[in-house]
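Recap from last week: sequence in, structure out.
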Amino acid sequence: MPYSKVFGQAEHVVLREAKQFARMERGAQAQVLTRIAVVDARKLYLQAGYPSLHDYCVSELDLTDAAANKRIRVARVGAAHPAIFDMLADGRLHPSAVLTLSPYLEGPGATELLAAVAGKPRAEIEYFLACRFPKPDLLTMVTTPSGAAHGEVADSLAPGRVAPTASAECAPQVVLPPARSRVMQLSADRVGLQVTVSRATHDKLQRAKDLLGHSVEPGDLAEVLDRALDALIEKLEKRRFAATDKPRTPRGRRSGNGHHIPAHVRRLVRERDGERCTFTSNAGHRCECRRGLEFDHVTPVARGGESSVANLRLRCVAHNQYEAERVFGEGFMRGKREAAKARAAEQVGARRASKQSGLKADITNTNPNVELRRNAALEVRQYGAETDLGPTRADEGRLPESEAQQPALESDLSDVRAALRELRFTKAEIETGLTAAVLLPPGAAPEDRLRAALKVLKLRSARKELPVRTVAA
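Predicted C-alpha cells:
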C-alpha cells in the first residue's frame, strides 16, 4: 500500500497494522536466520559460487557487511541452541539479546538461562547477567592530557588539586585495544589510509626512504608505499604464477612429481582464467574470489591427472577443498587435514624443543631438498676419483660447522647457484652441483667450487646419456 494511503488511514488501523507487520517481520527474520544457519552448516554457499558465508549474505541476500556479520553470529548461536529461533519468531528474544547471551550459553544451564531472560528488554538482560555472573570492579584511573594513566580515584580530586604522579612500580598496566586500520574514500582517485605499525615496520619504512634518497619528496610516504607494493607484488606473482618478462623456452622433459606444475603452464592457466576462481554454480554465478588462489587438477593426480593446461584451473581455497570433498569424500579429506595439522604440530614442537635444548641444527636439515642432497653426496663418493676434487668431506655430506667459515661459504655457494642458474640447469641439477661444491675443503675459491659442480654434473649426464651444458672453466 502506498505511503500516502497509509497516512490517510484511521489511527486505530495504523496502530493495529504496525503491530501486525512487526510480528510478521520477527517471524520472517527468524526464518532468514534459520536458513543462514543451514547454509552455514551444509556449506551451501560454496555450491552457490561464493567462497564464504559472509560473501553469500552480502551478495545474494543484499545485506551490508555489519548486518551480515551480526546475522551470521546469531544464526550460529541459534544452530547450537535451536530454541532460540522460536523465541526470535514470537518476540521473546531479539538478535541483540542473543549476542549478549552467547558467551553464557556454553554449558548445561543454557535452557534455563534462555527461559529466565525470555521477554526481557536488553537492559534487564544485562542486569540479570551481571547479577548471575558478577565481574570484578574496573580499575579507576585519571588520564592526563599527555595520555599517561595514573592510579587515582577521579572523585577524590578536589578542585585545584593536582593528582600525584604514580611511580613506575605502582603504575597500573593499561591494556590498549588492538589498533585497527581505517580506509576512507576521499575522492574519486584518492583513498585515505590510517594504520598503526610496529617499531620494526617503521624502521623498515625509514630505511626505504633513506635508500630512495632524492627520488621521492621528503615525507611522501605514499610514494614509498607504492614502490614497496610494486616490488612485493612482482615477487609474489613470480612465486605463485611464475610471472616474468623473459619467459624461458619450455623443456620437453617431464618431472617425476605429478604435483609439479611447470612455470609456463602456470603462466598460461593464470592468463586463461583471469587470475580468478573458476568455480561456477548451477545458476551461472562464477566465484569472484581472487585471494589465495590455488591450482586445482580437474582429474586428480591420484587418478592419473597430469599438470597440463587443459587439466588445471584456478580455484580459491574454499572451492578447492569443496571439489576435493566431492571427489574423495568429506570424511577422507577431514582425515587428511587432521593428519596434516598433526604433522605440522609435531614439526613445530620438534623445532621448539631443539631451540630450548640449545642444539645447533645441521645446515642441511633446513634445506627442503635434504634427501636430494644426500643422494648427490652418494654420487660424489662414487665418482670422487674422476672429479679430481682433492680432499673432500664426501663421507659427511654436509657443510663445515665452523661459524667463522659460514658467511664466506654461503656467499660462494650463492655465486655458484647463480652461475648454474644462468647456464639453465634444473633445480635438481643445481642441488647436485652445490653438493659437490660444498664438499671442497674450506678456503676453496668460488671458481674451484663451480668447476667441481660442473664436473659432477658432466659425469652424471654422461651416466644417463644426456647432453650436458659446457662452460669455459
